[in-house]
Amino acid sequence: MTAFDIDHDGYLGVNEQLLGHVRTFGDIIENLNTALKNIPEAARGQATPIWLEAQTNWNRIYGEMQQKLNANTLSSINVHEIFRDGDRTGAQIMLS
User: Fold this and answer.
1) Where are the domains of the chain?
2) Most buried among 60, 84, 89, 93, by the most CB within 10 A?
């Protein structure tokens, strides 16, 4: 069977760029998260009462942000695969 995979207006390249940016962003927020975890210790425990609520909110938002970013990136990759599968099905129909 003939291989059939159209790069729809560079969509595969766009996904590769997206993955690179997602990784960079992930590194940045991971570094931020690491720094924020150290605030109570850096303030010698004096910031704990003030910081506790903000840190709890950040931890929740950080987790949601990572989950949504990963899910949306995966969705974009899936779109390319759906197009590819459709192209292959169309090729099989035309070649039958």
Assistant:
1) 47-96
2) 84
